[in-house]
Design goal:
It is a single chain. This protein is of the alpha/beta class. The chain has a single domain, classed as Deoxyhypusine Synthase (3-Layer(aba) Sandwich), CATH 3.40.910. Helices cover about 50% and strands about 15% of the residues. The chain has 15 helices and 11 strands. It has a 6-stranded parallel β-sheet, with helices on both faces. The chain has a 3-stranded antiparallel β-sheet with strand order 3-5-4. Helix 3 links the parallel strand 1 and strand 2. The radius of gyration is 21 Å and the shape is globular. The termini are far apart.
């Protein structure tokens, strides 16, 4: 018998079962077991004070309500320290911050009719076309402010955008703030690996035609994210990578380690913990399905920590609410690291060590 074998002997489920008991006792095999392992790894090792947690977000998570519903409570509890997201997630998050409505609907609607009715569809989510226009107008008005008229990284850009949307939410009486507003309030730096690939980037580009001096510099992001990972090693600290989906945000989060050792020559070490929720297959060679074992070959994941690297092949909209409920039930809130405020010092330390080498 394999030593790690776990006897499957669940008792009949009762009507009053908690989320924690559901996952611990009934998620016994296949991807349910992987989800249980992810949740238990969070409780046992990741959500400790000495671990810096980076999260990547791909897919349309915020239109589905996971921004305010899941990621906001996790940030407020100090369980997410820095983020790499698609621009689309951040753009659609602004709809909630501006008080606009999105609706659960059928995925089998007539899209030609929706177009005639000025209705936008994201699979089974619908909202009025005016939501896009009003959100675009808010972005352009905000980006014309003097503090945006310079070259900056996307963390500073999203921090400023979060400040403005937080003020709007307060004026509108919206008590539960959106993802970007919460990141601003909690000092969680939010990066976008492809700033031109969203409606936010489209509005930045439109303003450039009008003479705006705003430039989003990806080199700043590459260095800052590497510096945050470098900072996580202080006082024998560790680094965790939690990936919701895959794509460019996943790589941008993981490439911090090759940036440190391959390019800067500062350390030969990968992330200590790796959790991913994805429905992508590894055998097609795509990034979204790339396994943590493959990431070891790139130096993205510490080979000694492969037992703490888990891939759960499931829909993120199923896994994330369960993971969030489990973490909030089983883990104590952590002090906010406020890495946005520390990123400049972290970058300077990494720069000094690189130049000294």
């Amino acid at each position: 018998m394999v030593k790690s074998s776990r006897k499957i002997a669940p008792s009949p489920m009762t009507a009053d079962i908690s989320v924690v008991d559901l996952i611990d006792r009934y998620f016994n095999a296949y991807n349910a077991a992987r989800l249980r392992e992810c949740c238990q790894l969070l409780e046992r090792e990741i959500l400790q004070d000495n671990v810096t947690v980076g999260m990547s977000l791909a897919g349309a998570m915020t239109p589905a309500g996971l921004g305010k519903g899941c990621f906001v409570p996790l940030m407020q509890a100090g369980m997410i320290d820095w983020v790499v997201s698609t621009g689309a997630n951040l753009y659609h998050d602004l709809h909630h911050g501006l008080g606009f409505s999105l609706y659960a609907n059928s995925p089998f609607l007539d899209d030609a009719q929706l177009r005639q009715e000025n209705t936008i569809r994201i699979y089974d989510i619908t909202f009025d076309y005016e939501v896009l226009l009003e959100t675009d107008a808010f972005i352009r008005r905000t980006l014309k402010s003097a503090e945006f008229q310079k070259t900056m990284g996307t963390a500073e850009f999203h921090y400023l955008l979060g400040k403005y949307i937080s003020k709007v939410e307060t004026e509108l009486g919206i008590e539960n703030h959106c993802f970007l507003a919460t990141a601003y309030e909690c000092g969680v730096p939010v990066y976008t690996s492809s700033p031109g690939d969203s409606s936010i980037g489209m509005n930045v580009a439109a303003l450039a035609l009008e003479g705006s001096q705003l430039v989003l510099d990806p080199a700043i992001d590459v260095n800052e994210t590497a510096a945050l990972t470098y900072l996580s090693r202080e006082n024998e600290g560790k680094s965790a990578a939690i990936m919701i989906g895959g794509g460019s945000p996943k790589n941008f989060l993981l490439q911090t380690q090759p940036q440190l050792h391959e390019v800067l020559g500062l350390e030969e070490r990968g992330h200590d913990f790796f959790i991913q929720f994805t429905d992508a297959r590894p055998d097609t060679g795509g990034l979204s399905g790339a396994t943590p074992a493959e990431a070891v070959s790139w130096g993205k994941v510490d080979p000694d920590q492969l037992p703490s690297a888990i891939v759960c092949y499931t829909d993120s909209t199923i896994a994330v609410p369960l993971m969030t409920a489990y973490a909030l039930n089983r883990c104590q809130p952590r002090p906010l690291k406020r890495l946005f405020d520390r990123r400049t010092d972290a970058l300077e330390q990494m720069k000094r060590d690189y130049l000294a080498r």
